[in-house]
Design a protein that fits this description.
single chain, mainly alpha, Glycerol uptake facilitator protein, 9 helices, MIP_CS, transmembrane, MIP, transmembrane helix, repeat
Length: about 250
């Protein structure tokens, strides 16, 4: 009885009552889980030179990560996970504009911290694979584990179109899945449907630049690679990455 009473008091003490704080923490945790699994899928593929993963397994990891992340925060924050989705909700009048910058900061922070966790998890593998040299280009590059980079053939205009179309399909699909007036997905299976949507986009539109479709997912880890030693090249380099090696949507 004493332990049970102590546990109840501890739960009451640790309970977060502020709704915005609860939403931010849920969003932070969900994005962290999303990026942790997504980048780990890329790290496993890259550092093993394709012997312990390939583009398809990397895409699958990213899609399943979306499912886990939506289950993690869906009931608290709505599991936006993505500034593009938050912006769409604001434009549709379903999310207050004043919360938008708050969610963007939290989503980017979650991505940054998750990138650091993946770097720690795969530190030895990255060092071994790259011979201790962190590069953005070349046969032993490792920057594409964390951020998305354009394929050699891609122009700036085509890359812009690629992301606009991919993100459009993503947002449209999510809105259709959660629309109660539509042919409804069985309750509780919405995250599974969103994961399948993400997977379908990845396997059909991933060749150009890896289907980031999420500014926070790309910028947070990219900023981490700059801080961790890859240098300014992470913000300006173009071409030469293996197609699909970069991370996915979130």
């Amino acid at each position: 009885m004493g332990y049970a009473s102590f546990l109840k008091r501890a739960q009451a003490l640790l309970r977060i009552r502020n709704q915005l704080a609860r939403e931010c923490l849920a969003e932070l945790l969900a994005v962290f889980v999303l990026i942790l699994i997504t980048l780990s899928g890329s790290a496993q593929m890259v550092t093993s030179s394709g012997t312990k993963g390939n583009v398809l397994t990397s895409y699958l990891a990213g899609a399943l990560a979306v499912m886990v992340a939506v289950y993690t925060a869906g009931g608290v924050s709505g599991a936006h996970l993505n500034p593009a989705f938050s912006l769409a909700m604001c434009l549709l009048g379903r999310f207050p504009w004043w919360k938008f910058p708050v969610f963007v900061v939290v989503q980017t922070l979650g991505s940054f911290v998750a990138a650091g966790a993946v770097y720690a998890l795969y530190y030895d593998a990255i060092q071994f694979y790259s011979n201790g040299t962190l590069t953005v280009s070349g046969p032993q590059e490792t920057a594409s584990i964390f951020a998305t980079y354009p394929a050699e053939h891609l122009s700036l205009s085509n890359g812009f179109l690629d992301q606009v179309m991919g993100t459009m399909v993503l947002i449209t699909g999510i809105l259709a899945i959660v629309d109660t007036r539509n042919n409804s997905v069985p309750r509780g299976l919405e995250p599974v449907a969103v994961a399948l949507l993400v997977l379908s986009i990845e396997v059909s539109m991933g060749a150009n630049c890896g289907c980031p479709m999420n500014p926070a997912r790309d910028f947070g880890p990219r900023l981490f690679t700059y801080v961790a030693g890859w240098g300014l090249e992470v913000f300006r380099w173009a071409g030469g990455h293996r197609a699909g090696a970069g991370g996915r949507r979130g």
